[in-house]
Amino acid sequence: MDKEKDIELTTIYVARGQFEAEIIRGRLEVEGVPSMLRYESAGMVFGIIADGLGEIEIQVPASLAQLARQILSVGLNSNLPDLPPDIEP
Questions:
Q1: Whole-structure pTM over 0.85, yes or no?
Q2: In the chain, is it the N or the C terminus that has fewer CB atoms within a 10 Å radius of its CB?
């Protein structure tokens, strides 16, 4: 039996576009939480963000959902060094 098919996935975040989704996914994976993106292909092909098209669900194993939410609640910039005062994030 294939173990990957037995893993229950949970959506922990819905991004509004590929760029945001990849940032969230990268943050989770840096913290050791595997993730995958789930999206409607039409939104990606046509670049539409309306009525659910263009939205991308970030999914993680259900057993890691609470940890993933905690990681994201801290903020995406928490591990970055402070920027000089004349540069805004």
A1: no
A2: N
